[in-house]
Amino acid sequence: MSDPSPHTPRPESSTGGAISPTPSNAGYTPDSDIHLLDRLAVLYRYRRVAITVFVLTTAVMMIQGYTNVQLYLARAQLLIEDERSTAVPGLNTQDNTFYEDPEPYYNTQYRILKGRDLTRRVIKRLKLETVPEFNGTAAPPPTPVSMLRDFEARLKNLVRTAPAAAPEAPKVDESPDESAMVSAFISRVGVDPIRTSRLVDVTFTSADPKFAAIAVNTLVDEYVEQNLAVKLGASQNMLDWLASELDKQQKKVQESEQALSEYRVKQNAMSLDDKQNIVTQRLTALNDALIRARTAKVQKEALYNQVKSISGSASPDAIPAIAQNAQVQTLKTKMNELVREKSRLEEKYQSKHPLVQANLTAIQDTQRQIDFETAKAVQTIKNDYDSAVLEERMLASNLDAAKADAQDLSQKSVGYNVMEREAKSNRTVYESLLQREKELRVSSNSRQNNVRIVDRAEVPKAPLAPTGRRTWLMSLTVGLVLAIGVAFGLDYMNDTIKTPEDVTRRLKLPFLGLVPTVRGDKHPLLTSSHVPHDFGEAFRSLRTSLISKYPGNGTKILIVTSAQPLEGKTTTATNIAMALAYGGSRVLLIDGDMRRPGLHRPLRLNNDRGLSQVLIGQARVRDVIQRTVDPNLLAITAGKTPPNPSELLSSERMKTLLTNLAHGPFDWIIVDTPPVLAVTDAVILAPLVSGVTFVVGAEMTRRRLAERAIDIVVSSRPNYVAVVLNRVDFARNKYYYSRYYGHQYKNYYAEAAV
Questions:
Q1: 556-612 residue pLDDT tens
Q2: Fold for the domain defined by 500-753
Q3: Which string of b and e fits 672-709 if b means at least 16 CB within 10 Å?
């Protein structure tokens, strides 16, 4: 389900007794389509201005059309491509290796086509001094077409980016006659680029059609030749410069390489790069070897410390490195076998038995071997440790020597690297210049031109400006279009609310009715005898709309407000109350504008006591109610102005007053409130009543002000909001009201009054 419109009133009230049944939301919504009569209404509203513009424009164009000299326009077409399009394929030149915005280049070419230097060459070729049209005369009076073309050219020049600065041409002294001819010729030249293409239309205007074609063809020919000459001249200048630069750069290359060679000899560094690599590798290898030697030394030192920590009575077998020795393990295994053999022999023989003695001898020999191998293992551990210490010292000494060699080499390489970089840089610059010189020479020999003529100009067959009937038709057409444009432009700038359609379409609120304007009467009332009949019928129609919008029984309370002062809300509230009273309803009219009370003036009532005295407790309601010209209409004026009107209207006493009046004998209670954009009184009362009647002054209330005021009112969530369009001028909006209300809307009431 879609969200409700921001101007949709709330469906129910938040208060109780002061609110009558919710009004009906059904209503007629005018067609929002734009009708032809709506357009005619705009023209009729601004008919005087439109007729004046039409007459003046048509007269000026006719006079100018019959007094101007007939001019002919010849047109030639050029193709101007980017300069990089002429590059020789395969050459990697600077012009085709980066992006460049083409617009400045093309703008420069357009200016060259209308430049004085090119024009002087064209004038000499045409011998313009012999042409009668240019014999000491300036350009002919501008025609509307030429004026429009000049205006478009100026506008394009303002919008475009400023063209890239071209090399300043040498100044040429011009005689007054030659300067006048150049200016006159340039004023007739037109350069019009075709959008989304690289084609350019070059035009020339002249009274002689043949001369116009010859002039524009000569201009494009000279431009093509000049463009090629400029390219070739620029290429030749660049080649000359490159030749001199190549000689200079070649000398620099030779000098830098010679200096590099001499440095190698003086510093004894003929193979500096290779030696630097060897020293660096040796330094790295020694550093790695020293780290490994120190690691091995730490391990062997720990093992050696274990050996030294063994006391005299302790067995070396406690050291894993000795116990795991292969020779020691073999001898211990043999010793164990001999010990087992001894036990077996002692059980079987006496101690003096030869076998027992041989076994003891073998055991003693094996023990001596074990002791020898153990001592040998201990000595090996000590020797390994001493070797590790010696190796560490030797590697550390070699590393220090390698560091000294590397430092010495680094000092020598500083100057060498500087000289080597300079030599390489000079060599690179020289090779780049040499390549550029060869490419430019090839490109220059190709004689490629990025400008060519696509279509040459033909002799024009018809003049620019129309003649005879065409002048009349063009003048009438331009005058009519300009008059209609002025009318609709004025209507567009006038953003006031003018018609009921503006209410429904712009303000998005229900439309109750409209009230015609009454000239010469500040407060027109239904009781006045001189009020037009259509004024009374308008309020009777409003009465019908209100009764249909608020059906059912019970007291209906309405507040009447507007966006700003002087829109006629007080008069509208008074006449609505009178119309309801004349219809038989019992009506109470309350002046809620306690800041600038005005309800008592048209009704000619006393304003000594009123609503303000009731709200502050100085008077009772029955004491301030006053009778009016109709017995069904009673009124309560605002009374004396209090210091805090808004606080009084938002007080509980005001809510109680409305609740009590809603249960009283009245069918309708109409409350006149101040403008919404001035104060917040209407916003305070909006949620407490049955609905809000918003008065909009026709052709005086701006749409944005009305929308802002309505947003403020709707923000308080009233039950219902509808609009009355006040002070409508039927004469100014004749076509609109004839569409919605018939052709005889006003005349009908006039006939009924007779």
A1: 999 999 999 888 889 999 999 999 999 999 999 999 988 889 888 888 898 888 999
A2: Rossmann fold (3.40.50)
A3: bbbbbbbbbbbbbbbbbbbbbbbbbbbbebebebbbeb
